[in-house]
Design goal:
Helix content: 10-25%
Oligomer: single chain
CATH topology of the largest domain: Jelly Rolls
Organism: Polymorphospora rubra
Protein name: Secreted protein
Largest sheet: 4 strands, antiparallel
Radius of gyration: 33 Å
CATH architecture of the largest domain: Sandwich
Strand content: 35-45%
Keywords: Signal
Order of helices and strands: HEEEEEEEEEE
Distance between the termini: 74 Å
Number of helices: 1
């Protein structure tokens, strides 16, 4: 004999309990995943920009004056949300300073201030290092070197003191 209707599936007590248990487990897992997603901190991406200037700029012509190098402008692709973590620097000047004088070199970060990056105990013609002194300021900040040669009196240098190279690498998170 042909059936004209589809018979109802029999639902047993065991089937209902199993269905409820699976539904409960799925809801608990969804809650755990949502909680972990909310409490896991986002990982910041790290990047850097770097420039090297092999230049005679700035040239020191006279003692007791400040001379400013060409600005290190960050690339246009530097994110506005980027924040500096470290800055690596290197500078070199061709000639040693006159006796008993010391080159004074500052690395300046826009309007955020300057950091002394020259050794003060000896007459260096170059120096390099890494600093976190600029940590927290925007990664799209323009930097420049400021150099001078202090003396008890002001006089014209002959020969003038030419710069050889300035390098800068800015590492940042965004």
């Amino acid at each position: 004999m042909l059936q004209t209707s589809i018979p109802r599936a029999r639902t047993t007590v065991t089937g209902r309990v199993r269905h409820r248990a699976l539904t409960l487990i799925a809801a608990l897992l969804a809650g755990i995943v949502a909680t972990v997603s909310l409490t896991t901190p986002a990982h910041a991406a790290t990047s850097s920009w770097s420039h090297t200037q092999g230049t005679a700029d700035p040239t020191i012509y006279q003692t007791n004056l400040w001379y400013y190098g060409t600005p290190f402008v960050p690339p246009a692709t530097t994110p506005a949300t980027g924040v500096i973590t470290t800055v690596d620097y290197e500078w070199a000047i061709w000639d040693a300073p006159p006796p008993s004088l010391v080159y004074t070199v500052y690395l300046c970060a826009g309007s955020y201030g300057c950091l002394l990056v020259s050794p003060t105990a000896w007459a260096a013609t170059s120096s390099s290092g890494s600093t976190s002194a600029f940590a927290g300021i925007p990664a799209n900040t323009t930097f420049r070197y400021q150099v001078g040669l202090g003396a008890p009196t002001t006089y014209v240098l002959f020969p003038q003191r030419n710069s050889r190279m300035y390098r800068l690498t800015v590492t940042y998170n965004y």
